[in-house]
Amino acid sequence: MILELADIRIHPGRSSEFDAAIKRGVETVISKAKGFRGYKVNKGVENPDRYLLMILWDTLENHTVDFRESQAFQQWRAIVGSYFAGAPQVEHFTLLAKSTGPAAA
Amino acid sequence: MILELADIRIHPGRSSEFDAAIKRGVETVISKAKGFRGYKVNKGVENPDRYLLMILWDTLENHTVDFRESQAFQQWRAIVGSYFAGAPQVEHFTLLAKSTGPAAA
């Protein structure tokens, strides 16, 4: 599995609207994509206009090819794109180590 | 609960040594700290010198005060600090939304 981390900055003052939009976008669009395995959205404490969208995909290509080249990507951007203060910074990661148990990060 | 995200860049070519050092540092030092609830370490695909250390704490102060002002912080930095190419970028986050099930990101 591959972790996609999208580091998102939105326009100030639109945080409560974006909270709803990002959830709707993931749940109605991204979660239906091929290879989607799960997600988390985290919101900044020091900077409430910063969000971390973490998505697990079966393979890197499920995100970079299958999703990004699909109509679904356009649908996702139509829901959330107007809130973005700039292009999200997106990279991919593999899991190196984790703690066990239900509270694992 | 609070998520600490430490975005770490290390000196090129030291990745396999650092893989072991970061695990040892978390497991022998940070995991003993007050308020520690779990962790993950992720390693970059596009950039193998980039690591994401994600730690869950009961409260923000468990990290920013209790841990950072403790001897344990010095012990942690003694294990991993020499690998860092610069100061890690650290911010804190709250969970806004997540998928359910065992594959959740």
Structure in words:
The structure is a homodimer of 105-residue chains. With 105 residues, chain A is of the alpha+beta class. Chain A has one domain (2-93): Alpha-Beta Plaits, CATH 3.30.70. Chain A contains 3 helices and 4 strands. Chain A has helices at residues 15-28, 60-67, 71-80, and strands spanning 2-9, 36-44, 50-57, 89-98. A 4-stranded antiparallel sheet of chain A has the order 2-3-1-4. In chain A, a hairpin with a 5-residue loop joins strand 2 (36-44) and strand 3 (50-57). In chain A, helix 1 (15-28) packs antiparallel against helix 3 (71-80). The first copy, chain A, is globular, with a radius of gyration of 14 Å. The model of chain A has no long low-confidence stretch (mean pLDDT 95). Chains A and B meet through strand 1, helix 1, strand 2, strand 3 and strand 4 of A and strand 1, helix 1, strand 2, strand 3 and strand 4 of B.
Question: Could you list some keywords that capture this structure?
Answer:
105 residues; alpha+beta; Alpha-Beta Plaits; 4-stranded antiparallel sheet; 3 helices; globular
Task: Briefly say what this structure is.
The structure is a homodimer of 105-residue chains. With 105 residues, chain A is an alpha+beta fold.
